[in-house]
Design brief:
elongated, 48% helix, alpha/beta
């Protein structure tokens, strides 16, 4: 057609607006689909339409057509699917019982992952594509994600992860006639190839060490045999939960969370010098130097801020593991920043969506939004990881 401008001019005659072009595209697409379905039938039967048989009567022949409306990007199309007498024809371009052209489902799922509700998507599809798809059908499309979620959540894991981060975020979910807060437990790991990998997402009514123990038990059952170092915030009982299942694992408390917890006890006038003294502890070059700085902090501020001293001394065994590593690894493991970037994507979704109708709707949306933003093959850390 590119070499026949007269034909193009004839086709485009009367096309004055984008809507006219879309209508023309829909007509051409409809004719193309119907011709392609006829070609599929020709291939299935082994002879072209109208071709006369030679000798014996053919075992299978055409048996009319079935007409249905199919929804696509440019509106509804009338598709005529040929039938054969023995009912063995299975069209591939537009399959039996298919009511939407390929690509529409992906658009729906993408909008869902952006935090839109099913009714929001229904309106968006109508506004953007002129296609009316009920929120019930949209729910059916997004429900297909659940199979992917279940398969992903139950997949076998690798035997060894040098680093694992554990963290949680809060979402709002309808439960009965109430809207309650629930905790999404997130586990991010680095495998021996230096690649980031989300190990799973779990929803519970509260974030607690008891539920984390069940999460870690599941990781064990899915094949994880050893974790070198587990990084976490200051949730009480979490280090003990980790070491119950992985007794050789080093548990590293996030120093950023620890500093925030310490600052709650400091007065405004003492904030700057006291924070500087605390920073000198974890910025020390060696463990011995850090212990000296902790003693210095206690001597200078201990009488006024005994709670801060108790906080650091009570968590000391979970503060100091990162001193065993070189600087390149220290900066990765002494905070939970690695998992915070993932949590940022999840929180963006929850800000848009605000309230989920149930746990399944939440996990579908979080799965698409969070994992879509994280390339599991991204290089994260290079180098070898000796047992510490």
């Amino acid at each position: 057609m590119a070499d026949q401008p007269d034909i193009l001019d004839e086709l485009l005659k009367g096309c004055k607006t984008p809507a006219d072009v879309d209508a023309l595209h829909a007509q051409l697409l409809q004719r193309m689909i119907n011709r392609a379905l006829e070609a599929e039938m020709d291939s299935h039967l082994g002879y072209d339409k109208g071709e006369r048989g030679e000798g014996e009567r053919r075992a299978n022949t055409r048996n009319g057509k079935t007409t249905k409306m199919v929804k696509g990007t440019f509106g509804e199309l009338e598709v005529s699917t040929p039938r054969d007498r023995d009912g063995s024809f299975e069209p591939q371009l537009v399959q039996k019982r298919q009511v939407r052209l390929a690509g529409m489902e992906e658009k729906i799922i993408t909008l869902y992952a952006k935090g839109m509700t099913t009714r929001d998507i229904e309106q968006a599809m109508q506004d953007l594509y002129g296609v009316r798809i009920s929120h019930t059908v949209i729910s059916q499309v997004t429900d297909a994600i659940l199979d992917d979620v279940r398969s992903w959540q139950n997949r076998p894991l690798e035997a060894i992860y040098p680093i694992v981060w554990l963290d949680g975020i809060v979402i709002k979910v309808h439960q009965g006639k109430q809207v309650i807060n629930k905790a999404v437990h997130v586990v991010l790991g680095v495998n021996l190839r230096g690649e980031k990998e989300v190990l799973g997402l779990w929803i519970a009514e509260h974030e607690g060490a008891k539920f984390w123990l069940s999460v870690l038990t599941e990781l064990r059952q899915r094949g994880v045999q050893d974790i070198f170092i587990a990084c976490m915030d200051g949730l009480k009982g979490l280090p003990e939960a980790v070491q119950t299942l992985f007794p050789q694992t080093l548990t590293q408390l996030c120093l950023v969370h620890l500093m925030r917890a310490s600052m709650r006890y400091l007065s405004t006038k003492d904030m700057k010098p006291a924070v500087a003294a605390l920073k000198r502890i974890y910025q020390s070059a060696t463990l011995d130097e850090a212990q000296v700085e902790l003693e210095a902090f206690e001597a200078a501020w201990g009488e006024r801020y005994r709670a801060v001293v108790r906080l650091w001394r009570g968590n000391w065994d979970n503060i100091i593991p990162f001193f065993q590593f070189p600087p390149e690894i220290r900066k990765v493991v002494y905070t939970t920043n690695a998992i915070e970037s993932l949590n940022m994507s999840l929180r963006k979704l929850t800000r848009n969506r605000r309230i989920f109708p149930n746990d399944e709707a939440a996990i579908k949306a979080l799965f698409r939004a969070g994992l879509g933003s994280l390339d599991s093959q991204t290089r994260f850390i290079s180098g070898t990881w000796p047992r510490v």
